[in-house]
Amino acid sequence: MDIVAERDPLLDPDQIELLRDALGEEELVRMLSQLPAAAADALQKIRECLAAADLAETRKAAHVLKGFSSSLGAARLSAVACEIEVDLATLADVEARMPLLAETVEATIAAVAEMQEHP
Amino acid sequence: MSNQTHISEAALDDRRGHDAIRDARILIADDDPLCRQLVESVLRRRNFANLEFAEGGVSALEQSRSFKPDLLLLDMQMPDMSGLDVCRSVRADPDLADIPILVQTATFDRKKMGELFAGGASDFLSKPVNPSELIARVVVHLERWNSLRELRNYRERISRELEAARRMQFELLPSCASLSEFAEKAGMRIGSYNRPSSELGGDLWGMLPIDDGAFGMFLADFTGHGVNAALNTFRLHALIHEYKNLHHSPAALLSMLNERLVRLLPPGQFATFLYVVVDHRRGELRFASAGAPPAILVQSLAGRPRFCEGTGLPLGIEPGARYQTYKRKFPEGSLLLLFSDGLPEYPDSFGERIGDEGLLNVLNACHAGLAPHEVIDRLCAAAGITGQATLPDDTTIICIDRRIAAPGEKTSSVAEAKASGSPRPRRSSLIMDIKHGYRC
């Protein structure tokens, strides 16, 4: 596990709690249920941009992933996306980060499923 | 539940009846559908129902123009047009220039934040979305926006009403046509100037027909300015016209008006009042004063101006106050000037006042060929009263002129008009100018 990802939990309990207070349990679950598909789409988009060797579009796709994942409390996924958007300078650097990103997407999806089963 | 959320909810509960906030139109602009949904869910949960959504910067701008939101929630980074550019464009649109714009951003870059506020953002919302912060900022900006709008609407309504009241008050004054008619019948010229210090004033003057050989002229000045003083002028106008049988007798009229006003006016409100019967048949003035600045009389073409002193308590102060009728000769070649204290006490740009002596000096220097409105213009100029100047006090000047117009004079004298057989020339620009005063 990478240092960047390690320092953030998969799901940020504080953010989740804020959302629960604001939305109620049912609406929170409904919102979180959209996270897996959106994260998978974003991952796919980043892969396509990489394949097209378009660093700017790669960063934009990472920005979108960062935005919704952070707001929905997916802290680790947001941190990895943020690194791709802001810190990595080359396509090769991003390429090297893709396994971690994919792994984090999967782990986040699993964590969301777990939370939905045991709220 | 966090304290912050609790406070927001409590605050919102207090405002539950605040339909304006709940019905506010909110446009949410974000290219990410999940973020739009999240913001929507938070707002709907707090009963904000009038929401629209834009999927990018360009559509945010277009929908701002069509939806006319009361608040715009704008994502900073959108692919087609940045939040900053949307912000600038919205501010450049006069219809939207004042709406609250909350920009959502994850940045803490000082330079970017500076650009954001310089570009017209009202506030920012941090990302990730904090629901409590979102609600608190939305509420505070909508309240501010509503207050601003209510204040503007109130101000516009009051302005319209004051304007209507001002026109009504103006209609209490003799029209230029009736003034000319009076003057023509009496073989004299009359000029007038009346300008309130604010939208409404406490000065009132008027002309009262008595018979073919005489008319009355009064000038009242109520304490204070504004609505209170103006309402009192309406009262006084009604009273004056109620006592037509006393119009020939200055002292009797003042006594009666005083008795009525003493009962009507609250303590601290009163009026100075000067009433002059201009008896042109006998060549005589009969006047009474209730604490008013004395009129200035010039009794011949070569005569020197002198004050017509007369004493009496202002109207509305003491029941049973007594007034005296004074007489002066007013032969052909005479000139009479009535004025409220706004004229001698006007502080010019150096803070100097023309004072009584200054008025005498100006009149002394006015040759007989000057028309009454020209005499008034010279007095105003000498006092420092210009069209742009704000008057600290309501100001009225009336000039009654029995002098013969000098040969070659180009002003609109009745004599000229009569001699030529043509209709009286109209000086439309001098007749009525709400900002700069009413003049005839």
The helix/strand order of chain A is HHHHHHH
- Envelope shape of chain B: elongated
- Superfamily (CATH H level) name of chain A: HPT domain
The main β sheet of chain B shows up as: 7 strands, antiparallel
CATH superfamily of the largest domain in chain B: PPM-type phosphatase domain
CATH topology of chain A: Four Helix Bundle (Hemerythrin (Met), subunit A)
Q: What is the CATH class name of the largest domain in chain B?
A: Alpha Beta
CATH architecture of the largest domain in chain B: 4-Layer Sandwich
Structural description of this entry:
The complex is a heterodimer of chains A (119) and B (440). With 119 residues, chain A is mostly helical. Chain A has a single domain, classed as Up-down Bundle (Four Helix Bundle (Hemerythrin (Met), subunit A)). Chain A is built from seven helices and no strands. In chain A, helix 4 runs antiparallel to helix 5, helix 4 runs antiparallel to helix 7 and helix 6 runs antiparallel to helix 7. The radius of gyration of chain A is 14 Å and the shape is elongated. The model of chain A has no long low-confidence stretch (mean pLDDT 91). Chain B is α+β, with helices and mostly antiparallel strands. Chain B has two domains: 152 residues, Response regulator (Rossmann fold); 267 residues, 4-Layer Sandwich (Phosphatase 2c, domain 1), CATH 3.60.40.10. Helix content of chain B is 40%, strand content 21%. In chain B, the strands form three sheets. Chain B has a seven-stranded antiparallel β-sheet with strand order 12-11-14-15-6-17-16, with helices on both faces. A five-stranded parallel β-sheet of chain B has the order 2-1-3-4-5, with helices on both faces. Chains A and B meet through helix 2 and helix 5 of A and helix 3 and helix 7 of B.
